[in-house]
Amino acid sequence: SIRTVLLAGGYRNGDLIDYGNRHTSFMFNLGAGGGAILLQRDYGRNRVLASHLITDGSFSEDVIVPAGGTKHPLTLEAIEERKHFFHVPNPQRMKERLEEKSMGYFLEAVRQSLAKSGYTEKDIAYAAMLHMKKSAHDYVLRQLGLSDDQSIYLNEFGHIGQFDQILSLELAASSGKLKDGDVVVLISAGIGYAWGATTIRWGEADAGN
């Protein structure tokens, strides 16, 4: 059976941003980067426990790239009309619906991941969170009963997609924020929309038992 898995990739969604389009300003913080992580069965450290994912297809057409796919192939006219960039057809509607649902989905994903892993939010030592606006970052921390010191706001790096959590873990480990036995939660979200969380028991597998 497979014992070791390498997860690797790159992120260049910033190439799809039209900085002249104010309706996509919430994505102006996108950066570019790559990352990799190894998962190994029965490894004695940093045990990956349970994940929980939530998707809401009602947001599926709130952020689109109008041209470049099979439905609307990329043409010179489409490029001249800047349809090969991200576009938000109805900004106000998306904003209102996200404000109503998004934070709740974040918290539900975290709490469900913890519950599946045998923990509650009171057990969290560190939250490795995707980069988003500071007010949303702070809101999630407060709702989980966490302090600013129990996470790292990635303002010097921007949002590099699926690698935010790996970067946050690297920064936390190198700065001494993590110790054996800590319960760590990786918190993510993506356009489409989807929200997710994964719980990790950091350090030696039997630490803190």
Question: What would you say about this model in short?
Answer:
The chain has helices at 76-80, 91-117, 134-143, 164-174; strands at 4-11, 33-40, 45-55, 124-129, 183-190, 194-204.
Description:
The chain is globular and about 60 Å long. It is 25% helix and 25% strand. A hairpin with a 3-residue loop joins strand 5 and strand 6 (194-204). Strands 3-6-5-4 form a four-stranded mixed sheet. A two-stranded antiparallel ribbon has the order 1-2. The protein has a single domain (4-204), classed as Thiolase/Chalcone synthase (Peroxisomal Thiolase, Chain A, domain 1). The protein has 209 residues and is of the alpha+beta class. It has four helices and six strands, in the order E-E-E-H-H-E-H-H-E-E. The two termini are 29 Å apart.
CATH superfamily: Thiolase/Chalcone synthase
User: What best-fitting shape do the alpha-carbon axes yield?
Assistant: globular
- Count the domains: 1
- Report the CATH topology name: Peroxisomal Thiolase, Chain A, domain 1
- The number of E-state strands comes to 6
How are the strands ordered across the major sheet?
Answer: 3-6-5-4
Distance between the termini: 29 Å
What is the makeup of the main sheet? 4 strands, mixed
Rg result: 19 Å
Q: Examine the secondary-structure arrangement and name the CATH architecture.
A: 3-Layer(aba) Sandwich
Proportion in helices: 25-40%
